[in-house]
Amino acid sequence: MTSHDIRNDPVLAALGDLPACDVDEIRAHRLRRRCRAVLTAKPRGAIAASPLASLPWRRVLGPAVVAMWTALYVLATLQQAIAIFRP
Amino acid sequence: MDRDTELALVEGLRRGETSAFDAVYDAYRAQLFAFLLRLSRRRAVAEDLLDETWLRLVRHARGLQPDTRLAPWLFTVARNLYWSHRRACLLEETLDHGLPGLWPSRESWPSPFDLALAAETQRRLEEGLARLPPQHREVLLLVAAEGLTPTEAAGVCGVRPEAMRQRLARARAALAEELGASTGEAIVTKRRFGT
After folding, report:
1. Interface mutation vs chain B, best among A6, A7, A9, A11, most B CBs within 10 Å
2. Residue B194, by phi and psi: left (phi above 0), alpha (psi -120 to 50) or beta?
3. pLDDT digits (tens, 9 = 90+) for B53-112
4. Closest residue in A to B25 (Cα–Cα)
């Protein structure tokens, strides 16, 4: 079906004349306010700019601390296991 | 809405301007709601999906491409939300077959007879539309009721333009069959004489 067919088709054209409908004013206003609030909210990048979330912490210090604790935990577990199974 | 205005509004949305949002909201809210209402046939569902569509727009506003076409973008989101909702809730089984509580048009009619005739024709049209499968309904609503081009509608539905044209022709034939000969003639007569 081409655009020309659509324009000249009475049934399809009648669909364009169906009555308009909308949400009630209170709901429309409430949604507008909510969307405006989301639109003007601080972007995520700006929120994450705290000293703790800064680049050195996220990229270097954080992983290093986690790795150190993990290594200590594994070592302690191994020591326990060796102590149990040592004759 | 002309293309320059649309591009300016997209730019405004990307900058987080509420005035741009207001303009888009006023331009497309009723259209989107009518589409969702006729597609879902439930006012409460249409209202929820409308809320979610607009919230998606503002959440993604800063990431919009500068050349975004707003109507296809909004209708794509609304349509995808409807299909997600439908899949999640298995809507079809629980639907009642009543007409959606549409608000009357503000258009005035020349006489009570014309008014009654037009209301009857529109009622049959709404009923015929409601009886169609949703795949046919969405095509007719996007192209015939909301005025998207078949190419834009194809983008919204994620199909090729040629497939969309075929789907539109099938949907139109299905609607004509639902309407029956008498209503079809009434519509043709109404449009021919402009009553």
Report:
1. A11
2. left
3. 999 999 999 999 999 999 999 999 999 999 999 888 765 555 555 555 555 544 444 566
4. A32
- Using an 8 Å Cβ cutoff, are B129 and B39 in contact? no
Length of chain B: 195
Phi, psi of A34 (to 5 degrees): -65, -45
Chain B environment of A18 (Cβ under 8 Å): 34, 38, 122, 125-126, 145
Chain A, window 45-84: residues with a beta carbon less than 8 angstroms from a chain B beta carbon: none
pLDDT tens-digit series, residues A44-81: 655 555 555 566 777 788 899 999 999 999 999 999 99
The answer to whether the beta carbons of residues B150 and A1 sit under 8 Å apart is yes
Q: How far apart are CA B69 and CA B74, in angstroms?
A: 9
Count CB atoms within 10 A of the CB of residue A28.
18
For residue B145, the tally of other CB atoms under 10 A from its CB is: 20
Look up residue A9 and give its two tokens. 């088709």
Can you tell me the mean pLDDT for B14-33? 92
Contact A23 B50 (CB under 8 A): yes
Q: Tell which of A3, A23, A30 to mutate to test the B interface (max B CBs under 10 Å).
A: A23
pLDDT at B195: 46
CA–CA min distance A10, chain B (Å): 6
Q: What is the largest CA-CA distance in chain A?
A: 95
Distance, CA of B136 to CA of A12 (rounded, Å): 13
The mean pLDDT value of chain A amounts to 82
Q: How far apart are the C-alpha atoms of B193 and B195, rounded to whole Å?
A: 6
**How close A25 comes to chain B (CA, Å)?**
11
